[in-house]
Amino acid sequence: MGLTVGPTTDSMRERVLAYAALVRLPNVFTAPPDVLAGAALVAVMGATAGPVEVGGLALASAFVYAGGTTLNDYFDANIDAVERPERPIPAGLVSRRRAVVLGVTLLGCGVAVALVAGGPQSSVAAGTLAALVVVYDGVAKGTPLGWGVMGLTRGANVILGTTVGSGVLSDGWWVVTVPLGATGYVAAVTWMADDEAHGTDRTAVAAVAGLAAVLAVVPPAITVVAGRDVVLTTVAAGLGVGFLAFVGPLLLAAYRRPTASRVGPAVGRSVLGLAVVQAAVATVAGLAWTAAALGCFVVARLLAGAFDVS
C-alpha cells in the first residue's frame, strides 16, 4: 500500500485556482492602467516617470486591489454562503482566517512596494488607497456611502500614478478630470452591482451608460488640451469608441431587462472596460504607454473567460 507524500497535482491546481478566484485575478490587471494613466498625465507635465518607478507603482496598485477583493470575500462569507456558494470561502477551498491574513498582507505589500518605488509621497497615496479599501469592505459596502467609497478607490488609484517622479496633480487643472471621472464611473458601476444577485435598478444602468459616454470623450480632449499631435488624438478617440463598443451592448441588455443574468455580465464588462479608457488617457504620453495599458486589458480579458469578474 503506497504512502501519499504530499498533495496531488489536482489538489494543488484546485488550491491555486481557488486563490486566483479569491483575488479576482482578471480584475487585478485592471488596476495598473489607472496608475499608467495618472503617471502619463504628470509625465507630460514634466515629471520624471521611469519604467521601473511606474512599474513599481503599478505593482503596488495590483497588490492593493488583490487585497481588497480578498477582504471583500472575507467580510461577505456568510452572504456568499447563500447567494454565491461557489466562491472559495463558502465552498471550503479557502478558510476565512487564511483569507483575512492574505488580504491584510497584500495591502501591506502594496504600501511597501509603493514606498520603495516612488518614495514617501507614493506610500501615502497607496496607504490612503488601502484605507479606502478597508472602509469599503468592512463598513460602507451595501450602503449608498459604499458606492462613493468604491469610486474613490479608483480615483485614488489614478492619483497613486500621479505621484511618480514627485508629480503634482494640481499642475494642470484638466488632469483632475481623470481621477474624478474614474471615481464617478466606478461609483455608478458599484451602484449597479449593489444587488446584482437579484437584479438592479434601471436608473443605475443608465447612470453607468451616461458616465461611460463622458469617459469616452475625455481622453481625446486631454490630448488636444495637452497639445499632442493628431495621431495620438486619433488613437485616444478610437479607444474611446472601442470602450463604448465593449461595454455598450451588455449595458443596453441590462437596461432592457435588469435581471441578475444580465446585470452580472454588464458589471464585469464595465469593470474591464475601464482599462481601455485608461489606455486612451495614457496615450497623451505616447503609444508605448498605450500599449502597456492595453496589454493589461488583454490579459484581464483573457482571464475573465476562466474567472468571475463581479
Descriptive overview:
Helix content is 75%, strand content 0%. It has 310 residues and is mainly alpha-helical. It has one domain (22-303): UbiA prenyltransferase (Tetracycline Repressor, domain 2), CATH 1.10.357.140. Helix 6 (96-118) packs antiparallel against helix 7. It is globular.
In a few lines, what is going on in this structure?
With 310 residues, the chain is an all-alpha fold.
Choose one word for the global shape. Answer: globular
Number of strands: 0
CA radius of gyration is 19 Å
Question: How many domains in all?
Answer: 1
Largest sheet: none
Q: Quick check: average pLDDT?
A: 90
Low-confidence runs: 1-5
What structural class results from the helix and strand content?
A: mainly alpha
GO cellular component, one term: plasma membrane
GO molecular function, one term: transferase activity, transferring alkyl or aryl (other than methyl) groups
Organism: Haloarcula pellucida
Subcellular location: Cell membrane
